[in-house]
Amino acid sequence: MADQPQTIQDLLEGFRSPSPEARPMMRWWWFGPHLRREDLLHDLDAMAAAGIGGVEAAFVYPMSGESDRFLSEQFLEDLRFAAESAAQRNLRFDLTLGSGWPFGGPHIDETTAARRIHWEREEVPPGPGRIVLPTVWPGDELIAGYIGNGTRSEEPESLTLLERDGEALLIPDGTGPRVVRIAVSRLTRQSIKRASSGAEGWALDHLSKDAALRHLAEVAEPLVAAAGPERIGTVFCDSLEVYEADWTPGLVEEFTARRGYDPLPQLWQLAFSKDSGRTFRADYYRTLTELLEENFIAVVGDWARSKGLKFRIQSYGQPPATVSSYRHADAFEGEGWGWDIISACRWASSAGQIYGRQVISSETWTWTHSPSFRSTPLDILAEAQDHLLMGINQFIGHGWPNSPRPAAENGLGRVFYAAGALDDRNAWWDAAPALWATLTRLSWLMRQGERLSQVGIYVPARDIYAHFAEAGRADLYKEARLHIGDELPHAVRTAGPDFDLFDDDAVTLLDPTRFPVVVLPRATDIPEPTRHWLQQVQDAGGTVLDFGGSAGIGTSAKTVEEVVEHLQGPVRIRATSAAARNEAVAVTTREIGSGQDAGPGAGLRVHFVANTSSRYVEPELTLQGAPVLERWDPETGAVVSRHTGQSLKLSLAPYEATILVESSVGTGMDTGADASVTINSTETTSAPTLALDTWQVQFSDESQPRAVELPHRWEDDPQRAFYSGSARYSTSFEVSENQEVILDLGSVEHHRLEDPGAAGLMEASFRAEVQPPVGVVARVYLDGEDLGVLWKPPYTLPLGRLSAGQHELVLVVGNVTSHQLAADEHLGQMVAEAEASFGRRFGIQTLDLALADVSSGLLSVPQLIRR
Q1: Model pTM?
Q2: Which of 15, 412, 810, 866 could form a disulfide with 781 if both were Cys (CB 3.0 to 4.6 A apart)?
């Protein structure tokens, strides 16, 4: 990481010309592997030209009837070629240590594959007996048997461990009907999801060091050797999706050594006891977490570091990982949007705060505005801003499909089944440099200094472990969100403060003064070291809130309103409209150094403020920092205006974000703004306007322009129903005297779908819920001069001081590429051929809905605002 800025001038200079390290990256999908080197070079060149900073090579299922094999000599040569070519273009090259997910493949056998506890159930009559358990599946191993009084309809209240005679269970004498439960160690038989040709096989046992070492030797070693360690940024592991994996050979011995007692007499309580066995279940799943950390995350991390590499991981899922499980890796990553919930990104960014990682990445834009090619730059920006609010400052786009070029040879080309296609086939790609530059600027700024979080939310892991049987899954992250709920984090974020999650392992490092407020959400089973730390928090003057009233320490808080009453922070937010409370605006704050121009002991504070909603909002912010506040524009890097005082009213368009920088003197830049006025998105109030209602249009495949009436929606023309591309709109206007003029394409209207699923949106799809005035981007030319591109609210652009007389205005409008996707006759054929040759490895997205709720063209009457 480069040196941190020490003055506000340093900060502004870095903001305007950010380090390339902060550029978004792309998960680069390699299908098959079926590759052409000219296509690899095309992708890398297109990314570099657009301002993308690098790739994460990901190897997935075939998309044609023919393919090379994963780890073949030719594949490894192509991998080396790609890594060398990326380095030549100054692009970062990250490497996924496997094909598909989770880790595994043909090298994993019955000794190293993921295992689960399978339970058999039988009734036995009174009297002694002997049961020999048959092997149903290869690899089955008897763990233990249990017996209790009852029948199929009257479950036993408790079970007793049966004695064994070799592989037989000895049934004691009894007085009535009884139920026998038998625990069998069985392979989960989970196949690698979305595997390349030649990478098929079982998921490895993430609780076994031997399994991890075998995968590193068989897969990771040849991959890294081919790419070259000196050319690799990080090596990567996706989220832990090893379903049902709750057993491993040697677990009884590991549990006994760690917990101090034999687990077998109580093992039945994992599945058949809700009212008792809470302590045992917490101990059991805590043991699984420790084995995951020590035998997988730490093993891969140590291996990577031995080669001079950094290990990046999405450390959540199954087997259960805690927030602190990240500490065994080098780079922390989350995924998914959700600025006001317990998200996977918050899981990762909280770990980063605790364990000192400045850069936190996210798998971003998964399922964005599905199906592929329907995402707009606004969709991408709005979801990225959501991630920034969670402490993310490195975007890993999901993703860029490698596909033969030119695409016209075989239809549109390849798409990944569960992601947007964020590549140069998008008809709006003219706006890509501005989009990626804006995200680079924001990512760089959000790496400076330290993110301030005023609230610590405890993850009561032992309480959550105890309820895994009821949940039916051993996923600590997902169950933590359900346990804590969405109401608490939403109330904290909409009040203005930020929060971090912490767990029992974290308190060994956390200073008791770290959080002014600590919240214990419905916590009962709190280990003694954590209770001691919580007492230290109170002794140091901090507030501990027993949210739910079951922790037995701190101040009781039964409602989120009571929690909010105790909050403090550098920014507080209040709604100024008819709404009773703020529901849409959030802030994340970073404090930077001591700042030579900020006065003794004071620092610079940077506030990223975002409207997360589809409506215009006017929040009022109360700040507690330095007296001078400047507003900086994320798209241009300009200092927009300056304000003095600690109360500030903003006007934010839908999904608009801004930067507020506090210091003692500011940058000294001349903004031309009155320091006493409200800082608004635009200066259009009460200004004279001129409607531009006479236009001509010419599509890229037409030879002559023609008159058109606005609004002009392309999909209403049968000849343009499947058109993805651009159209040139032109008009002329007259200015009577020299004056400043602003172009306004029109308002942004709220547009929420009643049934998102019917329009093709998956559960995790993000979509900006608006109808913009242009579908979807417009490059602006005035009198032949290129003034830039409009692609996000508020869709206004200063045209400068115009001289009196006639002027020509041209808007080149580009739409989305989902029209080509809907009309593509080749994609379905490719999928069918791949399935015929390699089996069903994926299900393609709902292509029949590619045009649902899509509008292209100039959708409003632009106007000129004269001031």
Answers
A1: 0.95
A2: 810
